[in-house]
């Protein structure tokens, strides 16, 4: 294989690994948030917070020359998964 292509692929692999570990850490924190919400009888979803996060991420994406639409879809996927986790935690607490 071409050496330059191999270097690109190694960089991509490293970035993918970092993304996975960062997502794992994010979900550890959101798990704790879900437990806190369940104990304090707070709703699993917070539409205001979601909108703030989406706007913030869209701006970050724009600043980084990344498509804001893509970043919003990516964050929406994560938010939806977090809400499912929070709903499950709440159901288990009831």
Q: What fraction of the residues are assigned to beta strands by DSSP?
A: under 5%
Secondary structure class reads mainly alpha
User: What is the fold-level CATH name, i.e. the topology?
Assistant: Chorismate Mutase Domain, subunit A
CATH superfamily: Chorismate mutase
Residue ranges: pLDDT <50 for 5 or more in a row?
A: none
Q: Return the average pLDDT rounded to an integer.
A: 96
Q: Distance between termini?
A: 57 Å
The CATH class assignment is Mainly Alpha
Radius of gyration: 17 Å
Mind summarizing the main beta sheet? none
How many domain units? 1
Number of strands: 0
Describe this structure in words.
The protein is elongated. The protein is mostly helical and 94 residues long. Helix 1 packs parallel to helix 3 (68-93) and helix 2 (47-63) packs antiparallel against helix 3 (68-93). 85% of the residues lie in helices and 0% in strands. The model has no long low-confidence stretch (mean pLDDT 96). 3% of the residues are buried. The protein has one domain: Chorismate Mutase Domain, subunit A (Up-down Bundle), CATH 1.20.59.10. It has 3 helices and no strands. The longest helix is centred in the first third of the chain and has 37 residues, at 3-39.
């Amino acid at each position: 294989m071409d050496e330059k292509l191999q270097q690109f692929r190694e960089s991509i692999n490293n970035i993918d690994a970092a993304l996975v570990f960062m997502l794992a850490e994010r979900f550890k924190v959101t798990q704790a948030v879900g437990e806190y919400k369940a104990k304090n009888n707070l709703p699993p979803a917070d539409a205001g917070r979601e909108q703030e996060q989406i706007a913030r991420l869209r701006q970050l994406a724009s600043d980084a020359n990344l498509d804001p639409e893509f970043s919003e879809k990516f964050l929406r996927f994560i938010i939806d998964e977090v809400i499912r986790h929070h709903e499950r935690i709440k159901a288990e607490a009831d």
